[in-house]
Amino acid sequence: MNKIRPFGILYVDDEIMSLKYFRESFSDVAVIFTADNPADALQVFIENEHEIGLVLSDQKMPGGSGIDFLTKVREHNPTPLRILVTAYADFDTAVNALNDGLLYSYLSKPWNPEELESKLKNALDHYEVSHQRDNLLEEKSLAFQHLAMADKAASMSILSCGLNHHMRNALTAVHTFLELTPMKLEEELGHPPVDEEFWGDFYSQAHGQIDRMTGILTNLWEASNRRDLFVTDNIDIANIFREAGTLMVEQEDNIFIKVHSDPPSPLISGDTTKLSQMARLFFQEAKTNLVDGGEIEILIAPDTKTDGYRISFIDDGEPIAEEDLNRLFDPFYVRADKPNEFGMNMVACYLTVFHHGGTMTAHHLKDGRNAIIFTLPRVAIRPAARTKISRDLMNEAACEHTVAALNS
User: Whose CB among 41, 62, 124, 263 lies 3.0–4.6 Å from 5's, allowing a Cys bridge?
Assistant: First the structure.
């Protein structure tokens, strides 16, 4: 009795009888998807790509060649294996495509059903093993990322404690001096200061910078040290971002916001205050990129790997330099193109995500837009619990590495 493979096969051929024969012959090997032209086949693949492990295509079809179709499949998702079905006359084409890495294999027409079944099973088994390996590597990578975030969170907690103690005292003294200076000066002179430009411009700038630094310290302190989250249920994370966008960008006529969410109201548990503050900081950071206006897009979708949601915060402003992406969450990193902007706000966002049990990374999308991508679980995970999970996974990885070394 044949075993149905967990991943299906997409077969593309303009001959209807050939498709029918293929379904009847191999439906007990795997789930079979078919299409009689490249355009429909590509749509079938896009709609079912996570269920398909093998794509077979005839080479000569009225709507385009098999090589062109399989090239489009690889561009969309290079993971599934690709096999070209061809006549003997196209043998050189198949060999060249195989050498270029486009094909896993090729088949010649007409085929022997028993030989073809064996090749299909071997290909699907190969794909399943590769898929499991990739998932395992991704789990290990996620575990290391969790530990890195835990280490950074601990460092930020120590840093924020020291900064708040020393810098707040210094800033308070400077702020008090600036508040008293005009009154003291007028008292000693017997009249208001003459240089109005100085007091109206430079003096106000000094006040503004002190307020800015105080705000940064407050954000960092709250994100770093409120380890015990005030957790409530049924928080609509999409609505959190909508409200933050309205608050932060409503005065900007040239900045537009789009929030796309599936489901429309993604519910999680967490600290509403911290999540709302995080969303506001995201918009504040994006505004520094959108000097001449632009669009901010928030995409929210289920994340099956974490049983939560994957949130992409995207802006089409000035691209962040590639070398800056990995340093965007460092507290005192200063971007070369924006020397007045520190990384404190993004560190606060980073720590909020961490304390809820998620991860955060910065990317450039294929279209060049800036994207901060992070995950939030449906139920907030305590930092101690998630660190233990990460360390258990790392220990498991170390054991596997040791066993492999002993067996080699």
Answer: 124
